TrEMBL record:
Residues 27-55 are annotated as: Disordered. This is Sugar ABC transporter substrate-binding protein. It is found in: Cell envelope. Its main location: other. Belongs to the bacterial solute-binding protein 2 family. PANTHER family: D-ALLOSE-BINDING PERIPLASMIC PROTEIN-RELATED. Residues 55-312 form the Periplasmic binding protein domain. Keywords: Signal. Pfam families: Peripla_BP_4. One of its GO terms (molecular function) is carbohydrate binding. It comes from Streptomyces uncialis. Gene3D superfamilies: 3.40.50.2300.
Amino acid sequence: MPQIPSRRGLLFGTAAVGAGALLTACTSNESEDEKPAANQNQPAASDKPGKPVTIGFAGPQADHGWLNAINENAESRAKKYSDVTLEITEGANDTAAQIGQIETLINKKVDVLVILPADGKALTQVGLKAMRAGIPVINLDRVFNSPQAYRCYIGGDNYGMGLNAGHYIGEKLKDKKGAKVVELAGLDNLELTKQRTQGFDDALKNYPNISKVARQAADFTVESGQAKMAQLLQAQKQIDALWNHDDDQGVGALRAIEQAGRDEFLMVGGAGALAAFEAIKQDRGVLKATVLYPPTMAASAIDLARALGQGKGISGTAEFEIPASVTLYSAVVDKDNVDQYMATGFK
């Protein structure tokens, strides 16, 4: 894994701190003579106070470690700026409730909206409503059905997450004949889960010696992770690797593995929880790696919303506007590079 790159390199590089890559580029402290010639006259956002911006933030209920980290990243990033006022909702998993919360923010005439929809398809219309009201929308993580419903999308690479998990496992097992892997997925009714599985399956096509022999969906909860993993272990008497989509449900999966007394395989997690990083660093169990899906994307969304509200671009790029889309990189974290990622782990 490469070391954390320079500020400018962080923007679209290997995302050594996930979405933190974009954060740094959006708020560069570089002096004018340090910037490339193409950017000398670009009105780029900086850390210095500028035009006041009120940002409305609406996300699902924080009933999951990753979602709680999303809220924390948004709030802590907004506090960094004296020119930003953050209007944050309580969060809701009920579609109608979240639409109502967003409509309240629209009626308050916030300058920019950051929305992580509980269901992208179901909330597309309220995104369109905001845009038509002249309030630009930063669509976070779960994408709306129409690009007209947002000004900028920022999110993780779900397909890449599965792809990188598959290649990591593939390289570990490439010399083992008849290798068997199992998959513990998230919520099957979410498009992101399907994308993660597709990426994983596509990666495994490069390793003809490996077969995926079973898959269970565990709903992103500790309880379901434990129950579904127990079922997998009971059905499969010998496996060589497990890919678990989510570190939160992975807590339950590890309980089931311990209770079953199984340790013949390696496990790769997903998202980047602090507990997973610590287990990887200790290297005493089956968990050997996790694939990032950084909640710091919410901090990046605040940076983008601030730049948008101030009519700015982002330093390190030649354009006068923020991008239309930013997809984060899903780095694999194992014992060799876990120390550099430890500070980004969420509880």
